[in-house]
Model the fold of this input.
Amino acid sequence: MPAIRVKTTFRRPPKPGSAAFFSLADRVRAGLTTPPYAVLCRGIAPTQGRNFAQALLHAVSAMACQHAGLPVALNPPPISFTEVTVKPDIDPNADAVTSYSRTEHALALHTDSTYRRVPHGLIAFHMVTTDRAGANSILAVDDVLSALDPATIAALSEPVFPFKAALYPIIAHSASSTPILRYYRAQIDLSAERHGTHLSARHSAALATLDAALTACDAIQWLTLKAGDMLVINNLRALHGRSALSRDSKRRMFRYRLDVPEGALA
Ligand SMILES: O=C(O)CCC(=O)C(=O)O
Ligand SMILES: [Fe+2]
Done:
């Protein structure tokens, strides 16, 4: 299996604000704009990681804006922070969104925060306590598209798929760049049920074709994050997932999510 393309290994993370820090942020930015649109940074001690991780993500976002010729916001965007651990008795649909990540179950390939008007552009998983059972998967939009026939791509590009109360396309095209994805099958099913959305036979068939293609896709990259590894993902250009854990897993992971201005990374 091919490794994640950009791998940054360092004994001690560079100090935020240093030249080495900005050089790292720029390598992460570059990795997020080329397949598989994900970057693995290693050696970020979880003890000092939270501040470092947030500073790095802000720097990546600012450099992405700069690189794309967009203004860099005066205020860095807020970063949503969640500690992901297994809570075996959690109801995956209990809160307003879902809590799938806190169950022990495998997570099929998906986009995060699909229910938002624009999903977060940037997400990062920083492993604190590893579990060999919990591997992460990554699949680039390019590989999703090349596994699909034109009729399926056309059906998935129509704004008919429910995410909460709104309808969106799964594949969104732009004239100038690679398409972006918004996909989370469990969210679509839950939203359809809660909001009584009817999907036509053609759109249901397109979803089934997409799921079959994702399950069979041999371009999926799997990696098991060790403590101190941080996987940074362009959430609009790559799907991610996770293999199943045990109910008593001690796996502990920090999850970060932030907005990146449209056009900066996708
Ligand atoms: O637990 C993981 O490795 C991934 C969880 C996930 O996909 C999420 O929290 O959005
Ligand atoms: Fe996720």
Notes: The pocket of 2-oxoglutaric acid (ligand 1) is lined by residues 84, 101, 107, 112, 125, 134, 136, 240, 242, 253, 255 (CB under 6 Å).
